[in-house]
């Protein structure tokens, strides 16, 4: 409590909005545990980076926590079975994505026994090598739980020339409706702090800041009470969306801005989500890989709202039905919050590592947006932008497909928070414009790389063909020269010995040719004779 | 010297100009040797914009020759794979007005990749010889196959195939390449009564 009484300086970010929070609905009940579903669908790609590679076969018996797919690169995480059972399929299944497309998944028919495989805790983490601890975290399949899903181990291996001075724990949870982190702090503050202990040991930062908005004083109290002498600072700051963005939180807590295109590590800062800290605790102290997460179930289309600890791979349908989801033809289901989440086209998709919220609103609660009107150039979007971009300019350039101008206006720095669309009086779906333009820019960059590659291959081929042609020409020229030389010699002989001599020369030549032909014939008729004999015959 | 200049101002001016001519001429001559640019840089810049499919639809044998032709004044609208975006980029580079794609050379189509129906392939190597980027693997009397990642979709291999076993398949959009479309523009629905009636009804 003492730390809260003496205020710690925080900074303000540009822009931001104050949408209705709608957080109390889902905070009434303690965290529940969702039952084990009959079938688990585990997408091989649940985080940013390369998808995992299956290491089990069809029909294999798997245990809870057993690794079923290996990481395939530095920016990649392995995948574990969320419960025991049998591998029923390794195939494409629809996943939670705006496109409604399918992706490779491992499907497990659970046996209901929930038998754990081998658990390898690393309780004495201070005794082992730092890289061993990082690889332990990597092997536990941990990726950022805040929503982006960046492999945690990558963030924990900063380059040697960039020492980490500040560790920031993100407990902001600024998006409306979502309370998964809030509920986690209220119930499991001690475990979270144990996870932060591990991070502190790994990174050896000078300062450890836990940032959260002042709309959850009970969470701040819970953390402060659990601190028990740890030198971590719990910092509350005014509630504003989107304070929870990584770069925004860094500015609020330290006053420093992450440079455009740069990483927090450039400033000596690492930022981790509070749910990730909890997952690290489970991995290090209990030897449990990331196989479940806390997900907020909220929205008026549900009977019981709250936070549930759900096994990864459980379908949204299964979880929502237990909470009395009244699905109608009109109803939407949103993964994530109302600002940055996306509508999933079917509820029959699995919950993954980044599913922090399932929002099932009634049509009146979250109506589909009104028809977009013309831009009236009011400039409210520029005032709301937390990254100090010029949303209106980017809107015009997106419409005109002026991609060079968009790059010049730093569209790549847009965090797609939706603040501009939220304040737009004309209901222009600005973020959709930026997403489409960003994708187009990405595609163009990719195509340019491919074109460059094709050009090199084409030029190499051209060179090879030219070289072959030159060689052919050279041979031809050499033959021609040899023929000319022979002819010249013949001429010389002819002029030297007169006509008779020329005739005899010709005769000699013919005789020689006949002898050669005969020798060749002999050689052919005696296939057993070694080649040296043939040469001798010649 | 000042006396000379005041006495013969005309000749002083002429001499001064001649000296300056010699000086700057020498400087320019030196610069032209020292900073000589190999090749034509504009050709490389144009070539950088062209899609490098090497398809020859522009009637030039490859992208580089077409880039050279553009630098010599050829029209910029003869590259169907580059499409309108390519023409726009060329127009920006060359400070010209963008012109629509010349339909005579083909239309802008979705990107494709060649696929050999392998059990029908007789191993004639004709497609291998036609491929401008060495994207087809195989040998005489042995089955050929396309390295899909290297294929530019130029379809130059289709015509030489004597058994017609090469298909040009459109590249399917996967999760990695899926993207939001630009929203339908607002101007199409300018009338206020076009507003979503369902929402208004329920809100009331």
Count of extended strands of chain A: 17
Helix count of chain A? 14
Spatial shape of chain A:
elongated
The CA-CA distance between the termini of chain A, in Å, is 109 Å
Q: What portion of residues of chain A is helical? A: 25-40%
- The share of residues in helices of chain B is 25-40%
Strand fraction of chain A: 5-15%
The secondary structure category of chain A is alpha/beta
Query: Could you give a short account of the major beta sheet of chain A?
Result: 6 strands, mixed
Head-to-tail CA distance between termini of chain B: 99 Å
Q: Please, how many helices of chain B? A: 7
Characterize the largest beta sheet of chain B: strand count, sense, and whether it forms a barrel.
2 strands, antiparallel
Radius of gyration of chain A: 36 Å
Task: State Rg of chain B.
Answer: 30 Å
**Oligomer category:** heterodimer
Which features does this protein show?
heterodimer; A: alpha/beta; six-stranded mixed beta sheet; 14% strand; elongated; B: two-stranded antiparallel sheet; 7 helices; disordered C terminus
List the helices and strands and how they pair.
The complex is a heterodimer of chains A (538) and B (204).
Chain A lengths: L1 H4 L26 E2 L5 E5 L9 E2 L6 E2 L4 E4 L8 E2 L4 E10 L7 E9 L19 H10 L12 H4 L10 E5 L9 H24 L3 E7 L3 H11 L5 E5 L8 H9 L14 E5 H12 L6 E7 L7 E6 L4 H7 L11 E2 L6 E2 L13 E3 L20 H5 L6 H10 L2 H6 L10 H5 L6 H96 L5 H7 L1
Helix pairs in contact in A: 4-5, 4-7, 10-13
Chain B lengths: L1 H6 L1 H26 L6 H9 L13 H9 L11 H12 L17 E5 L9 H5 L5 E2 L7 E2 L19 E5 L26 H7 L1
Antiparallel strand pairs in B: 1-4, 2-3
Helix pairs in contact in B: 3-4
């Amino acid at each position: 409590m003492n730390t809260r009484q003496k205020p710690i300086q925080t900074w303000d970010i540009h822009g931001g909005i104050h949408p209705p929070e709608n957080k109390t609905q889902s905070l009434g009940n303690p965290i529940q545990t969702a039952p084990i579903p009959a079938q688990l669908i585990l997408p091989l790609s649940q985080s940013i980076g390369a998808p995992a590679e299956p290491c089990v076969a069809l029909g294999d018996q798997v245990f809870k926590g057993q690794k079923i797919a290996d990481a395939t690169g530095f920016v990649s995480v392995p995948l574990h079975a969320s419960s025991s059972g049998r591998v029923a399929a390794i195939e494409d299944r629809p996943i939670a994505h705006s496109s409604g497309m399918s992706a490779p998944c491992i499907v497990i028919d659970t046996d209901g026994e929930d038998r754990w495989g081998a658990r390898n805790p690393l309780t004495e983490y201070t005794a082992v090598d730092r890289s061993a601890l990082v690889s332990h975290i990597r092997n536990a399949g941990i990726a950022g739980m805040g929503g982006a899903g960046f492999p945690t181990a990558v963030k924990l291996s900063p380059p040697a020339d960039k020492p980490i001075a500040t560790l920031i724990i993100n407990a902001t949870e600024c998006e409306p409706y979502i309370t998964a982190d809030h509920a986690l702090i209220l119930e499991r503050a001690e475990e979270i702090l144990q996870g932060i202990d591990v991070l502190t040991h790994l990174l050896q930062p000078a300062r450890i800041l836990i940032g959260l908005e002042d709309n959850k004083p009970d969470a701040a109290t819970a953390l402060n009470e659990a601190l028990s002498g740890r030198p971590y600072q719990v910092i509350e700051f005014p509630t504003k969306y989107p304070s929870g963005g990584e770069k925004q939180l860094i500015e609020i807590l330290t006053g420093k801005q992450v440079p455009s295109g740069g990483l927090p590590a450039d400033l000596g800062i690492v930022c981790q989500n509070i749910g990730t800290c909890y997952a690290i605790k489970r991995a290090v102290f209990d030897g449990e890989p990331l196989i479940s997460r806390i997900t907020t179930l909220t929205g008026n289309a549900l009977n019981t709202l709250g936070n549930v600890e759900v096994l990864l791979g459980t379908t949204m349908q299964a979880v929502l039905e237990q909470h009395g989801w009244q699905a109608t033809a009109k109803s939407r289901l949103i993964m994530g919050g109302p600002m940055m989440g996306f509508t999933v086209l079917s509820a029959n998709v699995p919950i993954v590592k980044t599913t922090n919220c399932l929002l099932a609103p009634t049509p009146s609660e979250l109506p589909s947006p009104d028809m977009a009107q013309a831009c009236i150039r009011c400039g409210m979007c520029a005032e709301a932008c937390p990254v100090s971009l010029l949303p209106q300019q980017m809107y015009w350039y997106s419409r005109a497909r002026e991609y060079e101008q968009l790059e010049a206006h730093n569209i790549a720095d847009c965090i797609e928070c939706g603040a501009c669309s939220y304040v737009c009086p004309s209901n222009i779906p600005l973020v959709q414009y930026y997403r489409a333009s960003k994708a187009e820019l990405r595609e163009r960059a990719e195509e340019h790389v491919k074109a460059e590659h094709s050009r090199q291959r084409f030029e190499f081929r051209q060179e090879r063909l030219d070289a072959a042609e030159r060689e052919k020409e050279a041979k031809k020229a050499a033959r021609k020269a040899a023929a000319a030389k022979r002819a010249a010699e013949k001429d010389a002989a002819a002029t030297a010995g007169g006509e008779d001599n020329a005739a005899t020369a010709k005769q000699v030549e013919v005789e020689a040719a006949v002898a050669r032909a005969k020798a060749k014939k002999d050689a052919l008729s005696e296939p057993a004779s070694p080649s040296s004999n043939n040469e001798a015959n010649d | 010297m000042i006396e000379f200049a005041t006495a013969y101002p005309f000749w002083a001016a002429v001499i001064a100009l001649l000296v300056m001519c010699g000086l700057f001429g020498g400087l320019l001559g030196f610069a032209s040797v020292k900073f000589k640019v190999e090749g034509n840089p504009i050709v490389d810049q144009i070539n950088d914009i062209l899609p490098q499919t090497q398809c020859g639809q522009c009637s030039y044998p490859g992208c580089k020759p077409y880039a050279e032709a553009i630098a010599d004044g050829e029209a910029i609208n003869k590259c169907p794979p580059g499409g309108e975006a390519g023409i726009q980029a060329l127009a920006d580079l060359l400070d010209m007005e963008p012109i629509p794609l010349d339909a005579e050379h083909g239309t802008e189509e979705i990107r494709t990749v060649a696929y050999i129906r392998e059990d029908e392939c007789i191993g004639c190597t004709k497609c291998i010889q036609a491929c401008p980027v060495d994207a087809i693997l195989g040998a005489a009397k042995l089955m050929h196959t396309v390295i899909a990642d290297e294929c530019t979709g130029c379809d130059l291999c289709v015509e030489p195939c004597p058994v017609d076993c090469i298909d040009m398949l459109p590249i399917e959009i996967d999760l990695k390449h899926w993207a939001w479309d630009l929203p339908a523009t607002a101007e199409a629905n300018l009338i206020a009564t076009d507003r979503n009636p369902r929402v208004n009804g329920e809100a009331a």
